[in-house]
Amino acid sequence: MSSSAHASLFQKFKLPNGVEYEQPLGLFINGEFVPGKERKTFDVVNPTTGKVVGEVHGATAADVDIAADAAETAFYDGPWSRMSSGERGRLILKLADLLEENMTTLASIESFDNGKVFQQAKGDIYSCIRLLQYFGGWADKIHGKVIETSPGSFNFTKQEPIGVCGMIVPWNFPLLNCFLKIAPAMACGNTLILKTAEQTPLSALYAARLSKEAGFPPGVINILSGFGKTAGAAIASHMKVQKVSFTGSTAVGRQVMKAAAESNLKKITLELGGKSPQIICEDADIGRAVEWINAGIFYNSGQCCSAGSRIYVQESIYDKVVEAFKKRAQANVVGDPFDETTFQGAQVSEAQYNRVMSYIELGKREGARLEIGGERHGSEGYFIKPTVFSNVTEDMRIMQEEIFGPVCAISKFKDVEDAIAKGNATKYGLASGVHTQSLSTAMEIANKLRAGTVWINCFNAFDAALPFGGYGESGFGRELGKAALDGYTQTKTVSINLS
Ligand code: ADP
């Protein structure tokens, strides 16, 4: 970050698809856009060109302190603390409506800032709206239980909000990652401080302005642009933050957990990395399975924590599937995210581009067969061709480590037992896919895979109502569905002596 005393708080942007709007650039604290206390700013880069397109204000620990005070006051003393659950739900639904009205602008910002395909960005914004509608509907349906013990007592539980929730999100689905946390947290009555990823700060700032328009009281939603080691670490260790919900790498997840343990033992939800298997059995509908494995790995330029990056194909159909998949992957159009024919945009940053390319080099050195791709697309920006390695063995790092790019590893399996063993040969456990026409084979594999989600004859089939989260080193706690409410409430027991 650099120091800039006179950086603006708003700037007119004209995006490559002609959309013009005013972009907020400040930190959103207590309902206002403000500069950081230490007047730091950092550059915003367009991944399709590698060029700087603007600068936003960056938060330091001092700003996290200010935001934490605002969020704490809003939680205990502000209008939010006195609002009925129905009114809270209505505000959340109002925000959903505003997102819908601003769909084109938000999707354009997302595509511009992240490098993702505009049509896919529209899908992200649509998912944000659905999340707000789903959790807005929950706001007045969160309640405890009456628990009978003895005739002389009356006992009940309440599901109370936790307080100030810290949220730290990555850049792959910039706004969607925010609302995966914001929507359930607000439904439960919490207040929040959210730090966006330093690569993609723009869309959340625009949404912050919409939250003000919706009528959320000051201090309920605080959005900080900033870096992990400064603002992120300050949130994870802050004594006024009662819960931290983190999405990102397993390495940083460990640090967040450590910071939570060493500060105030704040509650934690971790949604971490993955190396999800896709298992294609010999009785699968090959044409459909190939469509799913293609979308499963190459959607969002391979930058999905759930990406189906390990592809296991039954021996008898292996050659046929590899050929069909290669052909399908080569048909993916890579390039300008705003072109309607494009399926794969840019990687988010130069650092990610370099990381993915170094894994491709590693795969070649490890002895895997490079079937297609493996190189840059075009001459500027961070584009990588869809890359498929075959003959990959379990010990290779490209089979074990999360690459987070358009690169997948294919290998064979003999029978169902072998498929399950290979599917489970990972420290991760986020998601998995099975392709077969046999219900009993599908269920046998689904029951034995150690993963938070099993998709059968589909992949990345998310819904606001379906819980999502990890087994193993992919984390714990669930986002989406009713299960997400557990992460943003705590149970209070009230026991009355009637005798
Ligand atoms: P990625 O590799 O996808 O960028 P990271 O785990 O590095 O994933 O980053 C995810 C989020 O965590 C980002 O918002 C980043 O700024 C933040 N972050 C990075 N380091 C830390 C840290 N030490 N403490 C808290 N947050 C961090």
Describe the protein in words.
It is a single chain. The chain has helices spanning 61-76, 79-82, 85-101, 103-114, 118-138, 174-187, 202-214, 228-236, 250-262, 286-298, 318-330, 350-366, 397-400, 416-423, 439-448, 483-486, and strands at residues 2-3, 10-14, 20-24, 27-29, 32-34, 40-46, 51-58, 146-147, 153-161, 164-168, 191-195, 221-224, 243-247, 267-271, 277-280, 310-314, 369-372, 387-390, 407-413, 431-435, 453-456, 475-476, 489-497. It is α/β, with parallel strands linked by helices. The chain has 2 domains: 2-272 and 476-492, 3-Layer(aba) Sandwich (Aldehyde Dehydrogenase, Chain A, domain 1), CATH 3.40.605; 277-463, Aldehyde Dehydrogenase, Chain A, domain 2 (3-Layer(aba) Sandwich). The strands form 6 sheets. A 7-stranded mixed sheet has the order 17-18-19-16-15-20-21, with helices on both faces. It has a 6-stranded mixed sheet with strand order 12-11-10-13-14-22, sandwiched between helices. α9 (250-262) links the parallel β13 (243-247) and β14. α3 packs antiparallel against α5 (118-138), α4 (103-114) crosses α5 and α10 packs across α11. The mean pLDDT is 97. Residues 168-170, 195, 197-198, 227-229, 232-233, 236, 248-249, 252, 255-256 line the site of adenosine-5'-diphosphate. The site of adenosine-5'-diphosphate (ADP) has 17 residues, from α8 and α9. It comes from Lipomyces orientalis. This is Aldehyde dehydrogenase domain-containing protein.
